[in-house]
Amino acid sequence: MRFYHLILFLGHTLAEVFSDEIIPEYNIKLFEEQREHSPDAQTIHIRQFGQDYVCSLPSKLTHAKTIEYVNQMEERVSSDLKLAVDIIKSLGTKYDKKYDNCLHRLSGYWSTCFCLFSDVSQYRSLDSKLLESGITRIDFNQPHFKLASFDNVDWEDYSNFKLNTNGAKTRYLEQTLTGGDICDKTGKERVAKVHYMCDPEHKFPSILEIREIKTCVYEISVSYPELCRVYPFMNSMFTVEQITCSLIAKDEEHNKIEQNGSDHLNLRDLNLINLGHNLYMGIHETLGLPTVLITSKKIDAANLEEIDDLLQDCLFAMIDLEKRKQLLSPLENNKESFVSQKDTFKYTVSLYGIGGVHICDLMMEQKSDKQIVAEVITGIEPKNFIEFNGIEIIHDS
Fold first, then answer.
1. Domains, the chain, with CATH or none
2. Which stretches make up the MRH domain (predicted)?
3. Residue 306: how many CA atoms within 13 Å on its side-chain side?
């Protein structure tokens, strides 16, 4: 059996040099339905907003960089979403319920009237002379339908909003409105999905498009010039590459690691946590398997110097987990306590590289003399903690 040893003494100040390249601007688009991905495409599985997605990556973006990029995505999207909703709410002081502030669009047999904070209606075309003014009043003597209403909107319920990107550059806020007239075909209320956006070609508030995407479900795009001057509605001035992610059905059977061979890891089964030091901790939440480590470095398993560098990364990450009190004690009677530098333990773990390729198994041992040692192991199945403060940890087989 061959061993590679690396010893660190705890409590020393460590100088760290990070050489990560600047990540180019990418747009991550989440689709709620399953989509086909090219068999030649590089893919990765991520979890966002409590759901699992499979993503196709641009050729220049690695798995590890994608994990790094999306690691803070949920927090960033949530912050941008709240800001976008607040901006639309602020337009109420200028575009209120008065019908002379409504937007109209003539489109064939029907015309559309969009009144911010009031309702969305369709009606027979008004006289063309009225339409030339750009601001018109709806003629209630003509047949009309209410497509949706703002009456029951809860502006604090962000689940009714989505911040998305149309194509590569145009950002918009989608709001789902209910409360429309009953549809004679479905027996349900009409629904409208409003897309608020900035269109630089329109200097005045405008209805850009309206279409019926499903029976009595309408999609309406509106542009307000005020949005062109504020983030997050400002359109990107740079080329943006797409990371397309489609929802994985919850009832779809999870692939076991064994399906790809014992030396290959399916990232889909993992909840990935960024540890720093080019490492991610992979937690098998759904399968109940031991935690694994994933490195973003490109490693040749036969290169002893690179293996030593990996062991050093693992030790640094373990030390940080102890300092931040983020690693729970494995003892059942200490569920609320965390591993510290005062504890002794043996911790075994499998280490994988980019794409889920198995690199090696290793054991980290923290000794009573405040030394922590990492070594490559073979012939031992990694089960994480196997000994803690002199007590053997028994795992279910």
1. 5-19+252-392 (3.10.310.60), 90-229 (2.70.130.10)
2. 100-230
3. 12
- What integer is the mean pLDDT of 118-142? 63
On average, the pLDDT of the chain sits at 75
Query: What is the pLDDT confidence band of residue 328, given thresholds at 50, 70 and 90?
Result: confident
Q: How confident is the model at residue 115 (pLDDT cuts 50, 70, 90)?
A: confident
Q: Which residue has the higher pLDDT, 235 or 173?
A: 173
Alpha carbon of 152 to those of 19, 178, 180, 221: distances in Å?
A: 51, 8, 11, 21
Encoding tokens for residue 137?
A: 């009043």
Element spanning 306, H or E: helix 304-323
Q: What is the pLDDT of residue 196?
A: 94
The arithmetic mean of pLDDT across residues 56-82, rounded, is 65
> In this structure, is the dihedral angle defined by the CA atoms of residues 313, 282, 296 and 3, taken in order, positive or negative?
positive
Alpha-carbon distances, residue 191 vs 26, 196, 295, 333 (angstroms): 32, 16, 47, 54
Among 236, 192, 241, 244, which residue's Cα sits nearest to residue 213? 192
DSSP-derived pairing of the beta strands 241-247 and 217-223: unpaired
pLDDT value of residue 220: 95
Pairing of the two strands 292-295 and 279-283: antiparallel
- Look up residue 177 and give its two tokens: 């409105």
Tokens for 314, please give them. 């693992």
Give yes or no for a contact between 139 and 110, defined as CB atoms under 8 angstroms apart.
Answer: no
At residue 382, the pLDDT reads: 93
pLDDT > 70 in the chain, percent? 64
- Tokens found for residue 396: 């279910």
Q: What is the DSSP letter of 189?
A: B
Cα(167)–Cα(389) distance, rounded to whole angstroms?
A: 56
Separation between Cα atoms, residue 242 and residue 56, nearest integer Å? 9
Structure tokens at 339: 């591993």
Measured between alpha carbons, how far is residue 43 from residues 1, 46, 78, 120, 298 in Å?
Answer: 36, 10, 25, 41, 17
CA angle 100, 101, 104 (to 5 degrees): 85
Which single residue is written with the structure tokens 């999609």? 219
Helices (H), 226-303: none
Q: Is residue 62 predicted with pLDDT exceeding 70?
A: no
- pLDDT tens digits, 38-48: 666 677 777 66
Q: Residue 348: which of 386, 390, 308 has the closest Cα? A: 386
